[in-house]
Amino acid sequence: MQEMLGGLLPVSRTTLAPFNLVAIVATLASVALAATFLGPRDRDSEPIADAEGPDALLAPEEAPRARPGLAGAVQGRRWVTATFGLLVVAYVAHWFHEHGARLDLNIVNWTFLAACLLLARSPVELAGALAPAGRIVVLVLLQYPIYGGIMGMMLDTGFAAQIAALAAQTGSAETLPLVAFLSAGVINFFIPSGGAQWAVQGPAFLEAAKTLGTDPALIVMAVAYGDQWTNLIHPFVAIPLLLLTGLPARKVLAYSFLLFLVAGVPLVAALFVASL
User: Which of 80, 99, 119, 176 is most buried, with most CB under 10 Å away?
Assistant: First the structure.
């Protein structure tokens, strides 16, 4: 893949490229403006009596209670969580000392764990905060085997690669980034992993970009745009959103679909202008 890109692409041509920065600002502004008009009027709003929103998830009776005796004394002390938090901080500091300014998923998780331990006032409070979060996460975890199976079929059968190759053949030098963007949005429904999606789409579109003379940096950003674009209406992302808001799917997806349409306009415009 790196050979097809002609070496490593600097972030100045992708993430920090002027067209991408303008696209980010324009997308945020468009979505925020649209959201202000989508809010229900007071007379149209209705209470949701059977919703289990954040307040229900954070019910105090579900929080673990401190036990009497020595166990209770330890559970209610801040020094316990602070000690473990400092130990994790020491490990994170050692990591950066040994490896420099380099991140991977594990060190990010350790950093967040250290923050949780240091901010919690006691083990009991930490457990009480994690309990409702676990109820949200568990439904997302149940989706992983399902989407893992879908992704496996798309990859192993070569169907996703065929979709990408067919889409790549339909573009011209100017329209290839737009085709990559739209096909990425479609494939994202079947392969919600950005890395796996790029592995499927990248070779076909980079080869087409080399043939047509399209900037490969635009292809990279187009696939990233498409992947994030359809996340607005992706059921994999909607589950935790529904749990956090306590709203039925029909109410949330109706709004997110409109925002999905609005967000597509500045993204398409940015790719179109950048490819000229």
Answer: 176
Give dist(CA 152, CA 146) in Å, integer: 10
Are residues 9 and 220 in contact, defined by beta-carbon separation less than 8 angstroms?
yes
Q: What are the tokens at 113?
A: 């764990």
> Is the residue at 105 inside a domain?
no
Nearest to 199 by CA among 177, 223, 222: 223
Assess if residue 96 is contained within a domain.
no
Answer whether 198's CB lies under 8 Å from 228's CB.
no
Long-range CB contact pairs, 103-106, < 8 A, 24+: none
pLDDT in tens, 14-35: 999 999 999 999 999 999 999 9
What global pTM score does this model have? Answer: 0.66
**Residue 56 belongs to a domain:** yes
CB atoms closer than 10 angstroms to residue 87: 12
State which H helix or E strand residue 239 sits in: helix 235-245
Q: Extract the tokens encoding 251.
A: 């109410």
Q: Total domain count for the chain? A: 1
Measured between alpha carbons, how far is residue 115 from residues 24, 56, 88, 125, 145 in Å?
29, 25, 9, 14, 30
**End-to-end Cα, the chain, rounded Å:** 25
Residue 251's domain comprises 2-41+49-64+131-275
| Structure tokens belonging to residue 263 | 């967000």
- Is-contact 22 270, C-beta < 8 A? yes
Buried b (16+ CB within 10 A) or exposed e, 41-64: eeeeeeeeeeeeeeeebeeeeeee
CB within 8 Å of 196: residues ≥ 6 apart: 151, 155
Residue 225 lies in a domain: yes
